[in-house]
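Proteins fold reproducibly. Look at a concrete instance:
___
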Amino acid sequence: MSQPAPELGLNTLETLQSRFGHSDFRPGQKAVVEAMLAGEDVLAVMPTGAGKSLCFQLPAFIRPGFAVVVSPLIALMENQTTLLKDRGLNVGMIHSGRDRARNVADWKSAATGDTKLLYMSPERLMTGRMIAALQKLPVSFFIIDEAHCISQWGHNFRSEYLALAGLRDHFPDTPIAAFTATANEETRRDIADRLFRTNAQTFVHGFDRPNISLQVIEKDRADRQVAGLVKKRRGQSGIVYCRSRRAVEKMAEILADAGHDALAYHAGFSGEERAWRLNHFIEKGGVMCATIAFGMGVDKPDIRYVIHRDLPSSLEAYYQEIGRAGRDGEKAEAILLYGYGDLVARRKMIDSGDSDDAIKRVERRKLDALVDFCDARACRRTLLLRYFGENRSRPCGDCDVCLDR
C-alpha cells in the first residue's frame, strides 16, 4: 500500500498556494500531508483551528482519482463543500437531504474525474450498492472525518460509524485517513483497532489553545449567572451550552428579553429551522443557546466566549465545545458553571442508562476526570492537556486558578 515518502515538491506547494490560498503549512500539517501522499494509513489528532481539513483536501487534489470523505452531519458536509466551492474547487456530496438529480450529478462528476472530493455519510457509503460502484472507480483515499465517532470510548459515539470497520475488507489497497480534534490515548487506540489492519502513521498535534482562557465558577442560580456574564460581553458572539432543550429555550428567552440577539438551537427543531438559526448566527453573531446538537459544522472564527451553563459529559466534550471559540487566534473565554447538583444528575444518568457495564465504567472514569478538572487547585490548562497525554513544563498563568495565586 505505502510508497517511499516523497519530499513535498513544487507541485504540492503550488497547489497549496494557488488552490487553497496558503503561502505555507501550519505546524503539524506538512508531516500528515507527506504521509498521505506516500500512501500510508493515517490517524491525525489535531485541535480545532489547526487546519486538519486541509491535510486531506490537499492530497486529494494532487493524487490521481478522487477521495471519499465520510462525515457524520449534513451541516458539516454543506459547510465544507461551500467553503471549497467558494475557492473555485470542484467538490461534491451525496446525502439524503438533496434531491436525486443533484446526488446523481455529483456522482457522475466524481466518476468522470471532474470532482476530487466526494462527501457522504457512513450509512450511504457502507451500502452494498455503493461499495460495488466505488470498487470500479479510482478512489485515492477514504477520509474519515470526526473519527472519534467510531469509538465507544469517545464522547460522541455514533453506531453508524461502526460499519466503517469493514472498509479495509472491501478496499485492501486504498489508504484510509482518520481525522479528529478530540481523542485521548484510549480513544485513539480504539479508532486504530477498528479502522486499520496494520499500524497507521499516527500524528498527535498539540492540544493547547493558548488564546482561550479557562474559568470555572461555582454554580448558583445559573440563569441569572449566565445573563450577567453575557451582559458583560454584550456585542460579542458567544455560545451558551445547556443540558436540556427546555433549559436552552428558557435561556434564549431570558437573554432575548434582556436585549441580546439570542437564539435557541437543539435537535427538536426541523433541519430547515436549524440551518436558518446556524446561518443567522454565523452571519449576524449574537448568542446561541444550544444543546450538544450545536457543534460539528460550526465554522465561525470570531466566537469570543463559550459558557457551559451545565456540566458537559466529559473533558473530551468540554474541549470540543470550547474549541468553537477563538478560531481567529484572538483572545477568547471558556467559562464553566459547576455545582454539586450537576454531578449528582450526571451520575444518575450514567447509572440508569442502557449502556453495558464496561461503557458505564468508562463514563464514570471520564466524569471523575471532569470533576478533578473542575475542583483543580493547580493550573487548569496543565490538567486538561495532561488528560490528552500532553505535558506542560509550567503553569499557563492565564486560567482562573493561576490568576488567583
Observations:
- Residues 72 and 223 are 32 Å apart (CA to CA).
- Residues 212-403 form a domain with the Rossmann fold fold (CATH 3.40.50.300).
- The chain has a mean pLDDT of 90.
